[in-house]
Amino acid sequence: MSTVQLAKQYNTAPITINSWLKRHGVILRSLSEAHADVSGENNPKFKARGSYAKDGVYLSPDVKGYLRRTVLGHPLASKRGLIGEHVYQACLHWGVEQVRGNDVHHKDNNKANNAIDNLEILPRRAHRKIENNFRGVVLENGVSICVNCRRPIENPKPVV
Fold first, then answer.
1. DSSP assigned state of 27
2. What is the CATH number of the domain that holds 76?
3. Residue 41 belongs to some domain of the structure
4. For 53, which DSSP code?
5. Is 118 helix (H, G, I), strand (E, B) or coil?
6. How much is the pLDDT for 78?
7. 91 in Cβ contact with 67 (< 8 Å)
8. What is the pLDDT of residues 13-29, one digit of tens each?
9. Assessment of whether the complete model's pTM goes beyond 0.85
10. Which has the higher per-residue pLDDT, 23 or 130?
11. 3-state secondary structure of 60
């Protein structure tokens, strides 16, 4: 508890709390100790929903189910430093320039399996075609067709 919080609790000034603590030999925390890092796992409200990479970095899931890590300054990361783990692993293996402008595809369609032998770099159009086929949709002349019955699909689900 801080001296300010104690002062509020006992309806007095923080300086009164500080002087009383010093008078009775209570060792006070330094300012850096008082403002210790409570982000991520150090936060008491932290809920581990992700997993850990082999290098010990915590991977958090995004809304689409992909695992992501924080790498500040990475050329393919977001402004906040977030990058998909599959993209990060592909960059380590093939290099940033090979990955830039392309999609990294999970061969087994398991978003949590980021092993390099499960990943491949594809042009965006080819990746969308694979994902559409996986979802049971193919594009013929710009029209979405069901792979089972070959009928046109009126409102296909958008491919993300």
1. P
2. 3.90.75.20
3. no
4. -
5. helix
6. 93
7. no
8. 999 999 999 999 998 87
9. no
10. 23
11. strand
